[in-house]
Each structure stands twice: as structure tokens, then as C-alpha cells.
Design brief:
single chain; alpha/beta; TIM Barrel; 8-stranded parallel β-sheet; 4-stranded antiparallel β-sheet; 24% strand
Length: 368
């Protein structure tokens, strides 16, 4: 039993739990969302109405807090996209779910493979002044920045951001072990979608995936859609990191939650295929995912061998801790924000979200 208003007041176990009752869990937190429901967050002119609609679709997946993610683009385009998202955060009722922003790039590897679907012509070195402009456009709400640590400027850049309370992640990188260690010593604490944004073929050892898996000071997030990483890698990675240092993300892009077809990711066309892959138009290169958060929880159990509690932890407490999201780091505990998801789980593991509450207010209720 959970009693709450804007925060959780009481949490008590039932004396005689009933199998007919739904589960209640902390609301899901997604640290990497490039867009949703046909809506692209990487476009400065995306309307507030569209952003609101995209958030509603995510509420139906149990998401209560997220970091809309802006990827590598022009200086003007990235700044405009961040400012536009922040305008929506302040103006929309649904904007309460926008906890801050994740900037993934533009300070990433320029070479094929690690760069992923990011446009090469916009890749550039770390620049503290550019970072300050991002923060100026969002009232200091850039919470997470992904960087490739092989840039010579990377350690000093990471130190600066960490001093200001920003989480810095390693991602889209071809760095060697020494460069990764320098980034971690400077304050990097996360690997962005580990196992992706990488060369198709790597040396057996050493390589930058093994280096990050072995570094106990790094948490790691994973796109558990069964497409970006296979079952075997997911299981091994979870064993290396442990559930306590592992995070579920969707890395959803604009086609997520929409019908197969062509969409936009910044200035690039992407296709959602019939088998739920998001790829650069006419290519096979992945460009984000179509993963729904509650399906990711299912996949962590089905593919990763986790329990329901472990999978929920990867979608709630762990991203709150690493993303420094206040009031969400202790789970279902008195005094925490009343961000809750009620759901059912069938005998074959399928999760159905029934209700999603944010700050004690119901934002989604299943009509079924």
C-alpha cells in the first residue's frame, strides 16, 4: 500500500497480498530520448503541441522523468533545439516530466563506426564556451553530456562539467585504455549505450568496450531492445557491471511509438522498418531505437535473465542516481517524489501499464 500526495507519505506491505492487485513501482526514468511518436527533439521548430503529444505516448509506457536528448548538429541547431525543449518544459503541463537534457555529441569520434548515425560534418572538439551557451539556453538544465575521451581537450572539459554538477558519459568513442582512464579520473561516471556506437570489427583485446566493462568506476546504460545488442552480450555486460551499475535506456528516436515509415532525426531521414528497427534512410545503420520503456523492462528479464525487481531498479533508482535526479534515488520510500507506475504482468512476462503518476498527479490511465 502506498499513500501519497506530491510525495510518498506511507509505504506498507499488505498483510495478505492478492494476486488480483497490480504492481506499483517507482515511475520509469529514461536518460536518452531523441524523440517519440513521430516527434523529433532535434529540431528547433518542433511545436509545443507535438512535444506534449510525444510525452503522453511515453507516459503510457510508464515513463515519469526523462532527459530529451540532442545529438550532434550545428552550433545554432543544437542550441535552438535545447532552447525549444526548455520552452516546452516551462510552458506545458506535461513538461514536469522533462527533468533536464542530455547532449550526446558533438564532441564524439569522427570516424565511421564509433560515430554511429551522427553527422560527420558537425563533429567538433570539446568547447567549454559552447557548453555554457547550452546551459544559458536551458537555465542550467543540461544534466548529462556524452563525449569521446580521445579529444586532447577532453579531461579538462570533463573536469569543468563535473564541477558544475553535470554527469559526463563516455560514448561514440574509439579511445584507447589510457584515454578512457584519463576521462574516468577527470570525473566521467557513465558509458552511453555500451556495445553500440562502435566499429563493426574490433581487436579481441584490448578494445574500448572491454576497457569500459572492466572499469568499476563507470556505470553503463544499455538499449535492451534485442536489436542493438544481443542476448549474450547483454548477459555478460550485466555480469561485468552488476545490476547496481547498470541502467536501461531506450535511445528512442522520432519513429518510436509510431507506424513504420520515414521520419526525421535532426536533418537526417530515418526509416522505421516492419521489424522495429530505426535506420538511416535506405541504409542498415541504426539511428536510435523504437523501444518502449516497459518493453525494455520485459527484455531485461527475458534476455538478460534478471528478476522483476532488478529490471525495475535499472529503470528507476539507477538512472536517478547516475543522472542526479533528486527525490528519486531511494525508490518507494517516504519523502520521495510521488512518481509511480501501476502495471500488470502476465504469466509470460508481458507488462501492461495501467496508470502513470508524476508528482502525485495522474498523467495516464489505461482505458482497457
Amino acid at each position: 500500500m502506498v499513500e501519497f500526495d506530491s510525495v510518498i507519505r506511507v509505504v506498507d506491505d499488505l498483510v495478505e497480498p492478492s494476486e488480483a492487485l497490480p504492481y506499483v513501482a517507482p515511475g520509469f526514468i529514461d536518460l536518452q530520448v531523441n524523440g517519440y511518436a513521430g516527434v523529433d527533439y532535434n529540431w528547433p521548430t518542433t511545436t509545443q503541441e507535438d512535444i506534449a503529444r510525444s510525452l503522453h505516448v511515453q507516459f503510457a509506457c510508464g515513463v515519469t522523468r526523462l532527459l530529451p536528448t540532442v545529438i550532434t548538429g550545428s552550433r545554432e541547431g543544437m542550441l535552438g533545439s535545447l532552447a525549444n525543449l526548455h520552452k516546452a518544459k516551462l510552458a506545458l503541463r506535461e513538461g514536469v516530466a522533462i527533468e533536464g537534457y542530455h547532449v550526446e555529441g558533438p564532441h564524439i569520434a569522427a570516424e565511421e563506426g564509433p560515430r554511429g548515425a551522427h553527422p560527420k560534418h558537425h563533429v567538433r572538439p570539446p568547447d567549454v564556451e559552447e557548453y555554457k551557451r547550452w546551459q544559458g539556453a536551458t537555465d542550467g538544465h543540461v544534466k548529462l553530456v556524452t563525449i569521446a575521451p580521445e579529444w586532447p581537450e577532453a579531461p579538462a572539459y570533463i573536469e569543468q562539467l563535473v564541477r558544475e554538477g553535470v554527469t559526463v558519459a563516455i560514448g561514440h568513442t574509439a579511445a584507447n585504455g589510457e584515454q578512457i582512464q584519463a576521462a574516468v579520473s577527470a570525473g566521467a561516471t557513465l558509458s552511453t549505450h555500451l556495445g553500440n556506437g562502435a566499429h563493426a570489427v574490433l581487436p579481441r583485446h584490448p578494445n574500448y568496450i572491454w576497457e569500459q566493462l572492466a572499469e568499476d568506476r563507470l556505470n553503463a546504460d544499455f538499449i535492451a531492445d534485442g536489436i542493438h545488442i544481443g542476448k549474450t552480450f547483454l548477459k555478460v555486460a550485466l555480469r561485468a557491471k552488476g545490476v547496481e551499475r547498470s541502467i536501461l535506456v531506450t535511445d528512442a528516436s522520432s519513429p518510436a511509438g509510431a507506424a513504420p515509415g520515414r521520419y526525421m532525426l535532426a536533418d537526417q531521414a530515418v526509416d522505421l522498418t516492419e521489424d522495429d528497427r530505426v535506420v538511416l534512410a535506405g541504409q542498415t545503420r541504426l539511428a536510435g531505437s523504437a523501444l518502449k520503456m516497459h518493453k525494455g523492462v520485459e527484455n531485461l528479464m527475458r534476455l538478460g535473465g534478471l528478476s522483476l525487481v532488478e529490471a525495475i531498479t535499472m529503470a528507476t533508482r539507477n538512472p536517478a542516481r547516475v543522472g542526479r535526479i533528486a527525490g528519486r534515488q531511494r525508490g518507494l520510500a517516504p519523502g520521495e517524489r510521488a512518481d509511480l507506475v501501476l502495471f500488470e504482468q502476465s504469466s509470460d512476462g508481458v507488462i501492461t501499464v495501467l496508470e502513470t503518476w508524476i508528482g502525485g498527479e495522474c498523467f495516464y490511465r489505461c482505458n482497457n
